[in-house]
TrEMBL record:
<keyword id="KW-0067">ATP-binding</keyword>
<dbReference type="Pfam" id="PF00069">
    <property type="entry name" value="Pkinase"/>
</dbReference>
<dbReference type="GO" id="GO:0005856">
    <property type="term" value="C:cytoskeleton"/>
</dbReference>
<dbReference type="InterPro" id="IPR000719">
    <property type="entry name" value="Prot_kinase_dom"/>
</dbReference>
<dbReference type="GO" id="GO:0005524">
    <property type="term" value="F:ATP binding"/>
</dbReference>
<dbReference type="GO" id="GO:0031032">
    <property type="term" value="P:actomyosin structure organization"/>
</dbReference>
<dbReference type="InterPro" id="IPR017441">
    <property type="entry name" value="Protein_kinase_ATP_BS"/>
</dbReference>
<dbReference type="InterPro" id="IPR011009">
    <property type="entry name" value="Kinase-like_dom_sf"/>
</dbReference>
<protein>
    <recommendedName>
        <fullName>Protein kinase domain-containing protein</fullName>
    </recommendedName>
</protein>
<feature type="domain" description="Protein kinase">
    <location>
        <begin position="82"/>
        <end position="208"/>
    </location>
</feature>
<dbReference type="InterPro" id="IPR050839">
    <property type="entry name" value="Rho-assoc_Ser/Thr_Kinase"/>
</dbReference>
<keyword id="KW-0547">Nucleotide-binding</keyword>
<feature type="binding site">
    <location>
        <position position="111"/>
    </location>
    <ligand>
        <name>ATP</name>
    </ligand>
</feature>
<dbReference type="GO" id="GO:0004674">
    <property type="term" value="F:protein serine/threonine kinase activity"/>
</dbReference>
<dbReference type="GO" id="GO:0005737">
    <property type="term" value="C:cytoplasm"/>
</dbReference>
């Protein structure tokens, strides 16, 4: 990090670009471009409130960013960019569905979480932690996160889709009984996956 205020302008500008474009990949507390755009859009929506938009300075701000905000909203990823194939699972805050990105052959697992449910349960911290684990986790053990976005009702996480299903599905194909070698293999993999979480400073509280 640059701390010397005497460093030339070009170096400081390069530091800002690196901070926004690269540092956020290793530090979830840094917003990055998507985070900054989220802040801008939220600010725009809040300022558009009938109580505020009559203020002269706010009215000027809304006029200045109107075209930019409109273009960003048109270009950003949204739910309509995907076709739902099937439901994979159901949870406390929503569901996980297999989706296909339109005009491509790319398949993802989309986790859809209702904002109101999360707020009512005061569990926004859990969502942030889940997102951070997906971003920072070792992809050998933790599902890869490709995209995250939101709309007025829901939060969305676009993750890698695993065609092989989960361990329970695999177990059912063996009449609910693995061989000793298979059991040893999958237990070892689970231990390594949980250890990778511990290395990030997280504890899994729902292993079963």
């Amino acid at each position: 990090m640059i701390e010397n205020g005497n460093i030339n302008v070009e170096s400081r500008y390069d530091e800002i670009k690196r901070f926004i474009l690269d540092d956020y990949k290793n530090d979830p507390t840094i917003l990055g471009i998507d985070g900054l755009l989220d802040v801008l859009l939220v600010l725009h929506d809040e300022c558009s409130n009938a109580t505020l938009r009559g203020e002269k300075s706010i009215k000027t701000y809304l006029e200045n960013v109107k075209t930019f905000v409109s273009r960003i909203k048109q270009c950003r990823l949204n739910r309509n960019d995907f076709e739902i194939i099937k439901t994979i699972g159901q949870g406390a805050f929503g569901e996980v569905v297999a989706v296909k990105m339109k005009n491509t052959e790319r398949i993802f697992a989309m986790k859809i979480m209702n904002k109101m449910e999360i707020l009512n349960r005061a569990d926004i911290v859990s969502f942030r932690e889940e997102r951070d684990v997906l971003v920072l986790g070792d992809p050998q053990w933790i599902t890869k996160l490709y995209y995250a976005f939101q709309d007025n009702e829901n939060l969305y996480l676009l993750m890698e889709y695993y065609y092989g299903g989960d361990l329970l599905t695999l177990l059912s194909t063996y009449d609910d009984k693995f061989s000793e070698d298979m059991t040893r293999f999958y237990v070892a993999e689970i231990i390594l996956a949980v250890d990778s979480l511990h290395r990030l400073g997280y504890i899994h509280r729902d292993i079963k």
